[in-house]
Amino acid sequence: xxxxxxxxxxxxxxxxxxxxxxxxxxxxxxxxxxxxxxxxxxxxxxxxxxxxxxxxxxxxxxxxxxxxxxxxxxxxxxxxxxxxxxxxxxxxxxxxxxxxxxxxxxxxxxxxxxxxxxxxxxxxxxxxxxxxxxxxxxxxxxxxxxxxxxxxxxxxxxxxxxxxxxxxxxxxxxxxxxxxxxxxxxxxxxxxxxxxxxxxxxxxxxxxxxxxxxxxxxxxxxxxxxxxxxxxxxxxxxxxxxxxxxxxxxxxxxxxxxxxxxxxxxxxxxxxxxxxxxxxxxxxxxxxxxxxxxxxxxxxxxxxxxxxxxxxxxxxxxxxxxxxxxxxxxxxxxxxxxxxxxxxxxxxxxxxxxxxxxxxxxxxxxxxxxxxxxxxxxxxxxxxxxxxxxxxxxxxxxxxxxxxxxxxxxxxxxxxxxxxxxxxxxxxxxxxxxxxxxxxxxx
Length: 443
Description:
The protein is α+β, with helices and mostly antiparallel strands. It is about 35% helix and about 20% strand.
Protein backbone atom coordinates (compact mmCIF):
# COMPACT_ATOMS: atom_id res chain seq x y z
CA UNK A 1 0.00 0.00 0.00
CA UNK A 2 2.85 2.38 0.88
CA UNK A 3 4.40 1.94 -2.57
CA UNK A 4 1.06 2.53 -4.22
CA UNK A 5 0.50 5.72 -2.29
CA UNK A 6 4.03 6.91 -3.04
CA UNK A 7 3.46 6.33 -6.73
CA UNK A 8 0.19 8.25 -6.63
CA UNK A 9 1.83 11.21 -4.90
CA UNK A 10 4.76 11.30 -7.33
CA UNK A 11 2.37 11.23 -10.28
CA UNK A 12 0.35 13.98 -8.65
CA UNK A 13 3.46 16.13 -8.17
CA UNK A 14 4.50 15.65 -11.78
CA UNK A 15 0.96 16.46 -12.86
CA UNK A 16 1.06 19.79 -11.06
CA UNK A 17 4.39 20.68 -12.66
CA UNK A 18 3.07 19.62 -16.04
CA UNK A 19 0.24 22.12 -15.80
CA UNK A 20 2.77 24.87 -15.15
CA UNK A 21 5.01 24.00 -18.05
CA UNK A 22 2.23 23.66 -20.56
CA UNK A 23 0.86 27.18 -20.16
CA UNK A 24 -0.43 29.94 -17.97
CA UNK A 25 -3.50 28.06 -16.72
CA UNK A 26 -1.58 26.90 -13.68
CA UNK A 27 -3.06 24.32 -11.34
CA UNK A 28 -1.73 24.06 -7.82
CA UNK A 29 -3.11 23.49 -4.35
CA UNK A 30 -4.77 26.66 -3.23
CA UNK A 31 -6.40 27.46 0.08
CA UNK A 32 -10.20 27.56 -0.10
CA UNK A 33 -12.33 30.59 0.66
CA UNK A 34 -16.00 31.41 1.20
CA UNK A 35 -17.11 35.05 1.30
CA UNK A 36 -20.16 36.14 3.29
CA UNK A 37 -21.70 39.62 3.10
CA UNK A 38 -22.88 41.23 6.32
CA UNK A 39 -26.03 43.06 5.26
CA UNK A 40 -26.91 46.61 6.20
CA UNK A 41 -30.47 47.81 6.57
CA UNK A 42 -29.95 51.02 4.65
CA UNK A 43 -27.18 53.06 3.07
CA UNK A 44 -26.74 55.08 -0.15
CA UNK A 45 -26.73 53.11 -3.42
CA UNK A 46 -27.57 49.84 -1.67
CA UNK A 47 -28.91 48.30 -4.89
CA UNK A 48 -25.70 49.09 -6.80
CA UNK A 49 -23.54 47.91 -3.91
CA UNK A 50 -25.32 44.56 -3.67
CA UNK A 51 -24.96 44.03 -7.42
CA UNK A 52 -21.29 45.00 -7.29
CA UNK A 53 -20.66 42.52 -4.47
CA UNK A 54 -22.32 39.75 -6.48
CA UNK A 55 -20.05 40.51 -9.46
CA UNK A 56 -16.83 40.96 -7.49
CA UNK A 57 -14.04 38.97 -9.23
CA UNK A 58 -13.33 36.16 -6.79
CA UNK A 59 -9.70 36.20 -5.51
CA UNK A 60 -7.87 33.95 -7.97
CA UNK A 61 -5.29 32.78 -5.43
CA UNK A 62 -8.00 30.76 -3.63
CA UNK A 63 -10.50 28.07 -4.53
CA UNK A 64 -14.07 29.32 -4.28
CA UNK A 65 -15.70 27.30 -1.51
CA UNK A 66 -19.45 27.28 -1.99
CA UNK A 67 -21.62 27.30 1.14
CA UNK A 68 -25.34 27.84 1.57
CA UNK A 69 -25.01 31.06 3.59
CA UNK A 70 -24.18 33.95 1.24
CA UNK A 71 -25.18 36.84 3.48
CA UNK A 72 -26.21 37.48 7.07
CA UNK A 73 -27.81 40.34 8.97
CA UNK A 74 -26.45 40.83 12.48
CA UNK A 75 -27.35 44.50 12.97
CA UNK A 76 -30.50 43.68 14.94
CA UNK A 77 -28.91 40.85 16.92
CA UNK A 78 -29.18 41.45 20.66
CA UNK A 79 -26.30 40.44 22.92
CA UNK A 80 -26.96 39.52 26.53
CA UNK A 81 -24.51 39.89 29.39
CA UNK A 82 -24.17 36.10 29.26
CA UNK A 83 -23.06 36.35 25.62
CA UNK A 84 -20.42 38.91 26.52
CA UNK A 85 -19.18 36.96 29.56
CA UNK A 86 -18.96 33.81 27.43
CA UNK A 87 -16.86 35.80 24.95
CA UNK A 88 -14.48 36.85 27.73
CA UNK A 89 -15.82 40.34 28.51
CA UNK A 90 -17.35 41.97 31.61
CA UNK A 91 -14.96 40.05 33.85
CA UNK A 92 -12.49 42.73 34.99
CA UNK A 93 -14.36 44.43 37.81
CA UNK A 94 -13.16 47.93 38.72
CA UNK A 95 -13.67 48.51 42.43
CA UNK A 96 -12.16 51.92 43.22
CA UNK A 97 -12.17 55.49 41.95
CA UNK A 98 -8.59 55.25 40.64
CA UNK A 99 -9.35 52.27 38.38
CA UNK A 100 -12.58 53.82 37.10
CA UNK A 101 -10.91 57.19 36.40
CA UNK A 102 -8.07 55.48 34.55
CA UNK A 103 -10.54 53.52 32.41
CA UNK A 104 -12.44 56.71 31.58
CA UNK A 105 -9.22 58.47 30.59
CA UNK A 106 -8.45 55.70 28.10
CA UNK A 107 -11.97 56.18 26.66
CA UNK A 108 -13.15 52.71 27.61
CA UNK A 109 -16.88 52.17 27.95
CA UNK A 110 -18.04 51.31 31.45
CA UNK A 111 -21.05 49.52 32.88
CA UNK A 112 -21.72 50.48 36.50
CA UNK A 113 -22.85 47.79 38.90
CA UNK A 114 -24.05 49.99 41.75
CA UNK A 115 -25.97 53.21 42.27
CA UNK A 116 -22.90 55.06 43.56
CA UNK A 117 -20.99 54.37 40.33
CA UNK A 118 -18.10 53.02 42.39
CA UNK A 119 -18.06 49.50 40.90
CA UNK A 120 -17.95 48.90 37.15
CA UNK A 121 -16.89 46.54 34.41
CA UNK A 122 -15.27 47.49 31.10
CA UNK A 123 -17.59 47.26 28.12
CA UNK A 124 -16.29 45.77 24.85
CA UNK A 125 -15.53 48.16 22.03
CA UNK A 126 -17.74 48.49 18.96
CA UNK A 127 -15.31 46.32 16.99
CA UNK A 128 -15.34 43.68 19.73
CA UNK A 129 -19.14 43.69 19.91
CA UNK A 130 -19.29 43.22 16.14
CA UNK A 131 -17.06 40.17 16.38
CA UNK A 132 -19.08 38.69 19.27
CA UNK A 133 -22.18 38.98 17.07
CA UNK A 134 -20.41 37.17 14.24
CA UNK A 135 -19.25 34.44 16.62
CA UNK A 136 -22.79 34.04 17.95
CA UNK A 137 -24.20 33.84 14.43
CA UNK A 138 -21.60 31.20 13.45
CA UNK A 139 -22.50 29.07 16.47
CA UNK A 140 -26.28 29.41 16.14
CA UNK A 141 -26.35 28.63 12.41
CA UNK A 142 -23.70 25.87 12.57
CA UNK A 143 -21.96 27.66 9.73
CA UNK A 144 -18.74 25.65 10.18
CA UNK A 145 -20.78 22.51 9.45
CA UNK A 146 -21.73 24.02 6.08
CA UNK A 147 -18.04 24.51 5.32
CA UNK A 148 -17.27 20.86 6.11
CA UNK A 149 -20.32 19.50 4.26
CA UNK A 150 -19.36 21.48 1.17
CA UNK A 151 -16.02 19.67 1.03
CA UNK A 152 -17.78 16.30 0.71
CA UNK A 153 -20.84 17.29 -1.33
CA UNK A 154 -23.81 15.51 0.22
CA UNK A 155 -25.87 15.03 -2.96
CA UNK A 156 -29.39 13.81 -3.65
CA UNK A 157 -28.39 10.32 -2.53
CA UNK A 158 -27.48 11.75 0.90
CA UNK A 159 -23.99 10.28 0.73
CA UNK A 160 -20.64 12.03 1.00
CA UNK A 161 -18.02 11.73 -1.73
CA UNK A 162 -14.39 12.76 -2.25
CA UNK A 163 -14.75 14.39 -5.67
CA UNK A 164 -13.90 17.93 -4.54
CA UNK A 165 -10.92 16.77 -2.46
CA UNK A 166 -9.69 14.81 -5.46
CA UNK A 167 -10.16 17.79 -7.78
CA UNK A 168 -8.46 20.41 -5.60
CA UNK A 169 -5.65 18.11 -4.47
CA UNK A 170 -5.01 16.47 -7.86
CA UNK A 171 -5.39 13.04 -6.25
CA UNK A 172 -6.15 9.68 -7.76
CA UNK A 173 -9.88 9.33 -7.10
CA UNK A 174 -9.86 5.56 -6.63
CA UNK A 175 -7.12 5.75 -4.00
CA UNK A 176 -9.08 8.31 -2.01
CA UNK A 177 -12.33 6.35 -2.17
CA UNK A 178 -10.55 3.11 -1.27
CA UNK A 179 -8.95 4.72 1.77
CA UNK A 180 -12.29 5.85 3.13
CA UNK A 181 -14.12 2.63 2.19
CA UNK A 182 -11.63 0.58 4.21
CA UNK A 183 -12.76 2.48 7.29
CA UNK A 184 -9.45 4.13 8.06
CA UNK A 185 -9.77 6.12 11.25
CA UNK A 186 -8.30 9.25 9.69
CA UNK A 187 -10.04 8.82 6.38
CA UNK A 188 -7.44 10.58 4.30
CA UNK A 189 -4.40 8.96 5.85
CA UNK A 190 -3.82 7.12 2.56
CA UNK A 191 -2.90 10.54 1.23
CA UNK A 192 -2.02 12.13 4.54
CA UNK A 193 -1.53 15.69 3.39
CA UNK A 194 -5.08 16.25 2.16
CA UNK A 195 -6.54 17.14 5.54
CA UNK A 196 -3.60 19.30 6.49
CA UNK A 197 -3.07 21.17 3.25
CA UNK A 198 -6.56 21.30 1.80
CA UNK A 199 -9.39 21.08 4.35
CA UNK A 200 -7.52 22.79 7.18
CA UNK A 201 -6.73 25.73 4.90
CA UNK A 202 -10.36 26.68 4.43
CA UNK A 203 -11.29 30.26 5.28
CA UNK A 204 -14.45 32.32 5.58
CA UNK A 205 -14.60 36.11 5.41
CA UNK A 206 -17.47 38.23 6.74
CA UNK A 207 -17.53 41.68 5.15
CA UNK A 208 -19.56 44.75 6.09
CA UNK A 209 -19.77 47.50 3.45
CA UNK A 210 -20.86 51.08 4.05
CA UNK A 211 -20.94 53.59 1.19
CA UNK A 212 -20.99 57.23 2.25
CA UNK A 213 -21.61 60.05 -0.20
CA UNK A 214 -18.65 62.42 -0.19
CA UNK A 215 -20.57 65.68 -0.57
CA UNK A 216 -22.11 65.92 2.93
CA UNK A 217 -18.77 65.05 4.52
CA UNK A 218 -16.86 67.47 2.27
CA UNK A 219 -19.41 70.20 3.02
CA UNK A 220 -19.10 69.68 6.78
CA UNK A 221 -15.30 69.84 6.53
CA UNK A 222 -15.49 73.01 4.41
CA UNK A 223 -17.92 74.74 6.77
CA UNK A 224 -15.80 73.86 9.81
CA UNK A 225 -12.67 75.06 8.02
CA UNK A 226 -14.30 78.36 7.07
CA UNK A 227 -15.45 78.90 10.63
CA UNK A 228 -11.93 78.29 11.95
CA UNK A 229 -10.36 80.49 9.23
CA UNK A 230 -12.73 83.36 10.00
CA UNK A 231 -11.96 83.05 13.71
CA UNK A 232 -8.18 82.92 13.31
CA UNK A 233 -7.99 85.69 10.71
CA UNK A 234 -10.13 88.16 12.60
CA UNK A 235 -8.59 91.60 12.09
CA UNK A 236 -6.47 90.47 9.11
CA UNK A 237 -6.77 92.17 5.71
CA UNK A 238 -9.98 91.20 3.91
CA UNK A 239 -8.02 90.11 0.83
CA UNK A 240 -6.17 87.44 2.85
CA UNK A 241 -9.39 86.21 4.44
CA UNK A 242 -11.10 85.96 1.05
CA UNK A 243 -8.18 83.95 -0.40
CA UNK A 244 -8.20 81.56 2.55
CA UNK A 245 -11.95 81.02 2.29
CA UNK A 246 -11.61 80.43 -1.44
CA UNK A 247 -9.01 77.75 -0.70
CA UNK A 248 -11.56 75.93 1.45
CA UNK A 249 -14.06 76.10 -1.43
CA UNK A 250 -11.48 74.69 -3.86
CA UNK A 251 -10.81 71.75 -1.54
CA UNK A 252 -14.55 71.16 -1.24
CA UNK A 253 -14.99 71.06 -5.04
CA UNK A 254 -12.18 68.51 -5.33
CA UNK A 255 -13.54 66.16 -2.69
CA UNK A 256 -17.34 66.42 -2.97
CA UNK A 257 -17.85 64.09 -5.95
CA UNK A 258 -18.31 60.35 -5.77
CA UNK A 259 -18.45 58.32 -2.60
CA UNK A 260 -16.30 56.71 0.06
CA UNK A 261 -16.44 53.04 0.87
CA UNK A 262 -15.83 51.89 4.41
CA UNK A 263 -15.37 48.16 4.81
CA UNK A 264 -14.60 45.83 7.67
CA UNK A 265 -13.70 42.22 6.96
CA UNK A 266 -13.39 39.51 9.60
CA UNK A 267 -11.32 36.45 8.67
CA UNK A 268 -11.99 32.96 10.10
CA UNK A 269 -10.38 29.57 9.51
CA UNK A 270 -11.95 26.12 9.74
CA UNK A 271 -10.69 24.23 12.79
CA UNK A 272 -9.75 20.90 11.21
CA UNK A 273 -7.20 18.58 12.80
CA UNK A 274 -6.49 14.87 13.23
CA UNK A 275 -9.00 14.52 16.08
CA UNK A 276 -11.74 16.31 14.16
CA UNK A 277 -11.05 14.24 11.06
CA UNK A 278 -11.17 10.99 13.04
CA UNK A 279 -14.60 11.79 14.48
CA UNK A 280 -15.86 12.94 11.10
CA UNK A 281 -14.92 9.74 9.28
CA UNK A 282 -16.03 7.55 12.16
CA UNK A 283 -19.35 9.17 13.04
CA UNK A 284 -20.52 11.17 10.01
CA UNK A 285 -19.14 9.66 6.81
CA UNK A 286 -21.83 6.97 6.69
CA UNK A 287 -24.41 9.06 8.55
CA UNK A 288 -24.28 12.49 6.84
CA UNK A 289 -27.82 13.57 7.77
CA UNK A 290 -26.80 14.28 11.37
CA UNK A 291 -23.79 16.41 10.42
CA UNK A 292 -25.55 19.76 10.40
CA UNK A 293 -26.65 19.41 14.03
CA UNK A 294 -23.16 18.58 15.29
CA UNK A 295 -21.23 20.88 17.63
CA UNK A 296 -17.90 19.34 16.58
CA UNK A 297 -16.86 21.86 13.97
CA UNK A 298 -15.66 25.40 14.65
CA UNK A 299 -14.42 28.47 12.83
CA UNK A 300 -11.47 30.16 14.53
CA UNK A 301 -11.02 33.94 14.33
CA UNK A 302 -7.83 34.90 12.48
CA UNK A 303 -7.90 38.67 12.02
CA UNK A 304 -9.84 41.75 10.96
CA UNK A 305 -9.14 44.50 8.44
CA UNK A 306 -10.78 47.93 8.25
CA UNK A 307 -10.41 49.79 4.93
CA UNK A 308 -11.49 53.08 3.44
CA UNK A 309 -11.35 53.94 -0.26
CA UNK A 310 -12.36 57.01 -2.23
CA UNK A 311 -13.50 57.21 -5.84
CA UNK A 312 -14.45 60.52 -7.43
CA UNK A 313 -15.54 61.65 -10.87
CA UNK A 314 -12.19 63.37 -11.44
CA UNK A 315 -10.63 60.35 -13.13
CA UNK A 316 -10.53 61.71 -16.66
CA UNK A 317 -14.15 61.31 -17.68
CA UNK A 318 -17.64 61.15 -16.23
CA UNK A 319 -18.60 57.65 -15.16
CA UNK A 320 -21.89 56.05 -14.30
CA UNK A 321 -22.68 55.54 -10.63
CA UNK A 322 -22.56 51.75 -10.85
CA UNK A 323 -19.12 51.86 -12.51
CA UNK A 324 -17.77 54.08 -9.75
CA UNK A 325 -19.13 51.73 -7.10
CA UNK A 326 -17.65 48.71 -8.90
CA UNK A 327 -14.22 50.33 -8.97
CA UNK A 328 -14.39 51.38 -5.32
CA UNK A 329 -15.56 47.98 -4.11
CA UNK A 330 -13.03 45.92 -6.08
CA UNK A 331 -10.06 48.11 -5.15
CA UNK A 332 -11.17 48.18 -1.52
CA UNK A 333 -11.61 44.40 -1.21
CA UNK A 334 -8.40 43.66 -3.11
CA UNK A 335 -6.58 45.90 -0.67
CA UNK A 336 -8.34 44.19 2.24
CA UNK A 337 -7.18 40.75 1.13
CA UNK A 338 -3.64 41.97 0.52
CA UNK A 339 -3.43 43.38 4.07
CA UNK A 340 -4.99 40.29 5.67
CA UNK A 341 -2.42 38.17 3.84
CA UNK A 342 0.50 40.30 5.00
CA UNK A 343 -0.66 40.29 8.62
CA UNK A 344 -1.62 36.61 8.86
CA UNK A 345 0.89 34.01 7.64
CA UNK A 346 -1.73 31.25 7.60
CA UNK A 347 -3.74 33.20 5.00
CA UNK A 348 -0.83 33.97 2.68
CA UNK A 349 -1.33 32.36 -0.72
CA UNK A 350 1.35 30.34 -2.44
CA UNK A 351 1.89 31.52 -6.01
CA UNK A 352 3.51 29.43 -8.75
CA UNK A 353 6.57 30.32 -10.77
CA UNK A 354 5.23 30.28 -14.34
CA UNK A 355 8.54 30.70 -16.17
CA UNK A 356 12.28 31.25 -15.76
CA UNK A 357 14.78 33.35 -17.74
CA UNK A 358 13.41 35.64 -16.45
CA UNK A 359 11.73 34.29 -13.32
CA UNK A 360 8.06 35.34 -13.44
CA UNK A 361 5.23 34.79 -10.95
CA UNK A 362 1.62 35.92 -11.36
CA UNK A 363 1.47 38.27 -8.41
CA UNK A 364 1.48 42.05 -8.52
CA UNK A 365 0.01 45.34 -7.40
CA UNK A 366 -3.37 43.80 -6.55
CA UNK A 367 -1.57 41.88 -3.79
CA UNK A 368 0.28 45.08 -2.73
CA UNK A 369 3.58 43.83 -4.14
CA UNK A 370 6.24 46.57 -4.40
CA UNK A 371 9.82 46.79 -5.60
CA UNK A 372 10.91 45.92 -2.04
CA UNK A 373 8.87 42.71 -1.73
CA UNK A 374 10.67 39.45 -0.94
CA UNK A 375 9.50 35.85 -1.11
CA UNK A 376 10.29 32.40 0.19
CA UNK A 377 10.67 29.77 -2.55
CA UNK A 378 9.00 26.39 -1.93
CA UNK A 379 9.49 23.07 -3.72
CA UNK A 380 7.19 20.04 -3.51
CA UNK A 381 9.06 17.01 -2.12
CA UNK A 382 8.07 13.61 -0.76
CA UNK A 383 8.72 13.21 2.97
CA UNK A 384 9.30 9.51 3.57
CA UNK A 385 9.16 9.84 7.35
CA UNK A 386 5.83 11.70 7.40
CA UNK A 387 4.44 9.70 4.48
CA UNK A 388 3.24 12.71 2.51
CA UNK A 389 4.31 15.50 0.22
CA UNK A 390 5.50 18.74 1.79
CA UNK A 391 6.58 22.10 0.50
CA UNK A 392 10.25 22.54 1.37
CA UNK A 393 11.86 25.99 1.50
CA UNK A 394 14.83 26.12 -0.88
CA UNK A 395 15.68 29.82 -0.67
CA UNK A 396 14.43 33.31 -1.31
CA UNK A 397 13.81 35.65 -4.21
CA UNK A 398 12.88 39.29 -4.59
CA UNK A 399 11.34 41.68 -7.08
CA UNK A 400 13.63 42.75 -9.92
CA UNK A 401 13.79 46.50 -9.32
CA UNK A 402 14.73 47.12 -12.94
CA UNK A 403 11.35 45.84 -14.10
CA UNK A 404 7.88 47.21 -13.24
CA UNK A 405 5.69 45.35 -10.79
CA UNK A 406 2.80 43.72 -12.67
CA UNK A 407 -0.32 45.90 -12.53
CA UNK A 408 -3.03 43.26 -12.15
CA UNK A 409 -5.45 45.56 -10.36
CA UNK A 410 -9.05 45.85 -11.50
CA UNK A 411 -9.59 48.62 -14.02
CA UNK A 412 -12.61 49.91 -15.89
CA UNK A 413 -10.24 50.98 -18.65
CA UNK A 414 -8.52 47.74 -19.60
CA UNK A 415 -6.97 49.38 -22.66
CA UNK A 416 -4.64 51.28 -20.33
CA UNK A 417 -2.87 47.99 -19.70
CA UNK A 418 -2.62 47.02 -23.37
CA UNK A 419 0.79 48.62 -23.77
CA UNK A 420 2.37 45.94 -21.60
CA UNK A 421 2.74 42.30 -22.53
CA UNK A 422 3.96 41.47 -19.01
CA UNK A 423 1.72 38.86 -17.37
CA UNK A 424 3.47 38.65 -14.03
CA UNK A 425 6.14 40.21 -11.84
CA UNK A 426 9.78 39.59 -12.73
CA UNK A 427 11.85 38.26 -9.83
CA UNK A 428 15.54 37.77 -9.07
CA UNK A 429 16.74 34.62 -7.34
CA UNK A 430 18.71 31.39 -7.41
CA UNK A 431 19.28 29.43 -10.62
CA UNK A 432 17.71 26.48 -8.77
CA UNK A 433 14.28 28.06 -9.15
CA UNK A 434 12.16 26.13 -11.63
CA UNK A 435 8.60 26.27 -13.01
CA UNK A 436 6.20 24.57 -10.62
CA UNK A 437 7.87 25.86 -7.49
CA UNK A 438 5.79 28.23 -5.37
CA UNK A 439 6.60 31.51 -3.70
CA UNK A 440 5.12 32.91 -0.49
CA UNK A 441 5.61 36.53 0.50
CA UNK A 442 7.80 37.27 3.52
CA UNK A 443 6.69 40.00 5.92
